[in-house]
Please model this.
Amino acid sequence: MRSSITIGTRGSQLAKTQTGHVADMIRTAHPGLEVNTKIITTKGDVILDKPLAEIGGKGLFTLELETELRDGSIDLAVHSLKDLPTDDPDGLTIAAMPERVTPNDVLVCGKWAAIYELPENAIVGTSSLRRKAQLLAHRPDLDVRDLRGNVDTRCRKVLEDGEYDAAILAAAGLERIDRADAIAQVIPAEIMLPAASQGVLGIQTRADDDELIGMLAAIHHDQTWWEATAERALLEGLGGGCQVPIGALASLNETHPVLEACVYSLDGQRGLRTALKASPGDRPDPSEFGRQLADSILEGEGKEIIAELN
Model:
């Protein structure tokens, strides 16, 4: 077995914290292994003055890490799985997914405790078209504006600078950097479905690195893999990326696995929400499960909404 590995990470506090968690898990699973980290800057980290939808595309937060993976500068990369395209880049693979943390979105706000308490025309910040569309579906009277920056920056603009009345962020990011104090409300999935695989870390390696892939099996979480795979298969089946207003949440529970999904127009005024349940005790192939629900959506009103988005 190799004596050391190098993990690539973006330079934000959240990315470094996530990478640190993974590094600690690997050290625990493989005592004596030297685990190093290398900070890599991505395009998404540099361009902060434009909405993500304007500069989006595959690899916005991942391309530079993947380049260094291929040339051997790093051995693995830790990503927020929702940032990764649903198809594996040539020569690379997701070798492991540690256990998922809270998948929900949250309201960050210092004055009001829930979305329905926000006053009319309150300014709410988010960089996600999915969050904006679902928020406007419930509260069309809100003033939803683009909000970029790392997690701490976005919290500061709400809680200290007062530039926004509230913001919508992922629970996972706040929990991982110990900023749960900023959460006013964990938004129920009934109001806002998260992005596909939100709260999941994807550990990416070279597809031919059998030794490292075998080592990472020790920190892989099977239920998380099933749920994330179903959600990402749904997203792929609908032809949507991380900047399309599609929400997805799977649950591999003891009674019956279920996959919920929604797709909205950008203004939130048209939308479709549906779910697929497996038979009690059944465990369907997650990729087929996700594609089955995607096909169902495309047979109905969802097809028109997605066509307009594209």
